[in-house]
Amino acid sequence: MSSLAIAFILTVLGVVSAALAASHYNCDGPLVSNLPQASFQSSSQSSISNVPHFSKLNRRDGGWSPKVTDRQPWLQLDLRDRMEVTAVATQGRYGSSDWVSGYLLLFSDTGLAWKQYRQEDGVGRFVGNVNADGVVHHKFSHSIRSRFLRFVPLDWNPSGWVGLRVEVYGCVYNDTRLRFSSGRVAVTLGSLLDDQHWHSVLIERFNKQVNLTVDTHTQHFRTKGEGDSLEVDYELSFGGIPLPGKPGTFLRKNFHGCIENLYYNGINIIDLAKRRKPQIYSVGNVTFSCSQPQLVSTTFLSSSSSFLSLAATPSASGGFMVRFQFRTWNPDGLLLSTQLSLEPQRLELQISNSRLRLTHHTSAQQKEEVSTGHRVNDGLWHSVSLSSRSLQVTMTLDNEPSSTIELADHMDAGDNLYFGGCPSLSPADPGCENPTLAFQGCMRLISINSQPMDLNQVQQGRLGNYKELQFDTCGIHDRCLPNFCEHGGQCSQSWNTFYCDCSGTGYTGATCHNSIYEASCEAYRLTGSSSGYFSIDPDGSGPLGATQVYCNMTEDKVWTVVTHNSTDPVRVQGSTLQKPYIMKFNYSASPEQLMALVAGSEQCQQEVVYSCRKSRLFNTWDGSPLSWWVDQGGERRTYWGGFLPGVQQCSCSLEENCMDMNYFCNCDADTDSWANDTGVLSYKEHLPVSEIVIGDTNRTGSEALYRIGPLRCYGDKSVWNAASFYQESSYLHFPTLQAELSADISFYFKTSVPSGVFLEDLGLKDFIRVELSSPSVVTFSFDVGNGGVVLAVKSHVPLNDRQWHYVRAERNVKEASLQVDQLPLRFLEALSDGHLRLRLNSQLFVGGTAARQRGFMGCIRTLNINGMTFNLEERAKMTPGVSAGCPGHCSGSSSLCHNRGRCIEKNSGYVCDCSQSAYGGPSCKEEVSVSFDRESSVTYTFQEPFSVMQNRSSQASRVYRESTRARENMAFSFMTTQSPAMLLTVSTFSQQYIAVILALNGSLQIWYRLHVYRKPDVFSPSPSSLADGRLHRIRIHRQGKDVYLQIDQDIHRKYTLSSDAELILIRSLTLGKVIGGENFDEEVMQAGSKGFIGCLSSVQFNHVAPLKAALLNRGSSLVSVRGHLVESNCGVLADSTTSHPLSDQAAKANKDKEQHGNDTRHDSAVIGGVVTAVVFITLCVVAVMTRFLYQHRQAQRDASIKEKEHRHNLETAYRREAAYQAEPAYRAESAYRTELHLHDSATLRDNREYYI
């Protein structure tokens, strides 16, 4: 009945169209440029340099050209899916005299049956090119919906030959999405409406708002056009659209089926037709009873054991013929198998990779195959027939051309035909085996040799045999309606479940729920990142997407910088209050994203640079504004600096330094000279500036110059938003959790008590709860109506150790998961046919329960649920038994421990755990450097449980990879004069690798090889040589396909990889010379053989610091050292003497040149004075240096003593760390005995701290 629904929409509303003219909406993207080589085919090719896949538009290495002997040349494209094509473009072969001057365009859905494209006037010939490099573009009058396209050259250059490069423009064809056109809106809703059951359709319109409801699913949309009224024709048609003047002829296929309860604006249309009212007339066979034939279906329930066995009735004409219809969602499954009369030959008809395949097994090793169809697992009914006649087996699918297999001898089918699968260990037909899976779907209208099979007799045991079948119904179910994939994820399905393709959405997870980006620059800093461009998602899994910002981490505060479209100075003249100058600012983030960013930041500011000449900001007579700016909410603002929004003043007035103290702004003095009213806006609720209006620059000599700086914010209010619970009966309450279909909950906690409930929300029967159930176990439990589900993560060390621990729990319609710190992820798949919605109705309790029992005592911070941060501090201020914030040195936002060092509370202060940092020292700030020679290398081997165990289970590895996503962080410093040189390589057991090398010219190169059979991605950020004897700092950060690179302080680059694949099973990381490397490319191998001569310092790869491990744990199996390796302070010395940004070097060189030029212009008298001064200064310097050298020598002695003590501490720490990784049984005792340096400090003796 879907046709009825669409026809009804078309006729009654007059605003919905099924003829989706692609020319009226944005559907003009290139489709050929990203196609793989396998998508290009041709009738022939003249040489290896003229192969079909060279035929992409603007490609400079040739183009396609057929053989000269090819009488009917053609070039064919497989667009990989059905596309809506709106235009084509052609070129000749690059740099040649070969081009096509005229051609035909054919299209097909299968690649077998073709149809010629004709334009509106019936012309099918396209005009081609007149030279080799010009582009001729043809936009279609009506679009093509097809997968395959074929270009057939008709004419070509008489002085050359056929040469072709092409591009095709369009978009993905998907008739389930909403598409807008000028004045028309088309929307499709519903699925599987041809199931012989009644379906309800309701259409409601109010002005431009339209609601379309099919059964229980509703789609809301708005019509296009200027007016709100609906101008319909004088006739309303139901069941079909008749062609005017031609009774019985329809514009499109009319509806076949039954309609009841047909109302239009309360009028019963069927009742008027029954009473033969004159305003009603019918065309064709219309009756008032529903007598549709009922087609009986059978459901094959199991993909492993379902089958239907029927006897092969003899055919009077010899051979055999089988017909049936099927529908399924599965891409693979056996449809039919039969033993032929000449053993061991047999026929198998199966769905393979969404196509229909017929296989003739002539022996155990030999077979013949033919395939047809495309996406036969689309859930629709498909008709298939299989017949054997005249030494041929013919397969026909729907209305497509038949496919045949030639037989050597005439043969009949065996005694039995097996539909849907093969029985296990069948003595009647031992050769019948399921090739992959049995069929899981529906079948009907089965006939053998033109005799219909009565499936009722099968059900009654009178005919054939079966297993795992359900008769009289088709149990197919559309699991993508409604679409549970969030954030624009594409839904696909099999018979039992659905899948979400999150590609390009910026989200990951089973339902595309989790953002792949951090929520703020502060969060990136905590992961060890440095300044650069990052994508942040301010609301995490909420509805807002990610936006790119610049994170400035060079100061103590981490600044988030958001730019807009007009950051350069702008000069304004000729504006008046009646016709003011107006500039609207478009930021790199949406208004909603900006609001979320500002709201989550501690402070924001924006600089307004405003210079003026005879241009006032305020009217000097009445004080009314002549210029103003507009805030994020659209409100006019007239203050030009500071954080006092109610004051009409400029910065000079706030600082009391205006040039004329009679005015509040310098510009209001209205002088002929330039004045300046630059200020910084810092009232963050009004930021950013969305518009500026200037209205007083129309007088003679009057002008203004302004520049609005980027929005700059620092701090993340959510990171340290904490509450302390010090009574078991205390809790914070919030509104009911809105988490029917999905919920992600994350927070940090620290405590000393053995158990307690972190949060709980209840319904009538449903509930959700996260708790510390024992000192080392966190549990996540919930019930959505299928019975209680409990996930538990057990730590090898106690979690009530008064240190911060991270918890993340997620539940969606596909699965549930629980993560605690860096422990292995625990997950559980949801029931495929169970309850989906979590129905809650009580308040959300944080830190306790409604029963006031088992409450949590300790600290909770950074509570985030579904992308929304809960303000614990604000609620704690008015709740007894709870206090805002959390006591302790490690509970603030100040960075006590640097470079990924972890702050650990102690009774007498705190310590910095530097085991996960490449740096050392009390605060993880001291460089760890090593000098290498040509034969030196350090190899760090990754062992269990960090990589291998993560991939033991296919299901666990899939979920783990989704939750952690493809991501690497690398940072190191180096100094060398050698090139080529190998700096760092990371290799995997699956032959992937990352390499960072210096090329022959000394430039830096980063190599990513994520697929064995693809070319590696190679990036070279700067052509200048880094083998200059200076210290250079490199940071590389990857998120999916995006690679961010920073060199020193002045080179920031972003690159895009060809794949977002993960490094699977990392084997080792090597610094310096590489031995072997048979999987590396030639240039990488050459650099690896040369090794590295120089200084490497503070090397970090994710959580691994290989240089520290090499220095302090040489006996460990994790670290392998070759050649001469010497601990050095080269990193510290180079950093203090030779490390300069590249821009600083250039500036210094220019300054030296300028100084030299100025010196040559001094006269001799000045030179004499200078010489005298130099002699005096030299004597002073000698005296100062003498004292300095004495002090420096004494300091070196003290440092030497401290360094020996520090090295002893480091050595002890890394021996313990190696024991932790090498001896799992010893982990519980030694997990936190790492590199620690105690900071003495007095502690709070508050009774609350006992639990914290």
From TrEMBL:
Pfam families: F5_F8_type_C, Laminin_G_2
Domain Laminin G: 84-290, 297-474, 721-886, 948-1130
A GO term from the CC aspect: membrane
Source organism superkingdom: Eukaryota
Transmembrane region(s): 1165-1190
Leader peptide range in chain numbering: 1-18
Keyword Repeat attributed: yes
Feature: compositional bias, Basic and acidic residues: 1149-1161
Span of domain Fibrinogen C-terminal: 512-564
Record's keyword terms, sorted: Disulfide bond, EGF-like domain, Membrane, Repeat, Signal, Transmembrane, Transmembrane helix
Localization annotation: Membrane
Membrane topology (UniProt): Single-pass type I membrane protein
Residue ranges annotated for the F5/8 type C domain, each copy included: 27-171
SUPFAM superfamilies: Concanavalin A-like lectins/glucanases (SSF49899), EGF/Laminin (SSF57196), Fibrinogen C-terminal domain-like (SSF56496), Galactose-binding domain-like (SSF49785)
Annotated family: Belongs to the neurexin family.
PANTHER family for this protein: CONTACTIN-ASSOCIATED PROTEIN-LIKE 5 ISOFORM X1 (PTHR15036:SF84), PIKACHURIN-LIKE PROTEIN (PTHR15036)
Protein name: Contactin associated protein-like 5a
Organism, scientific name: Hucho hucho (huchen)
Lineage, uppermost ranks: Eukaryota, Metazoa, Chordata, Craniata, Vertebrata
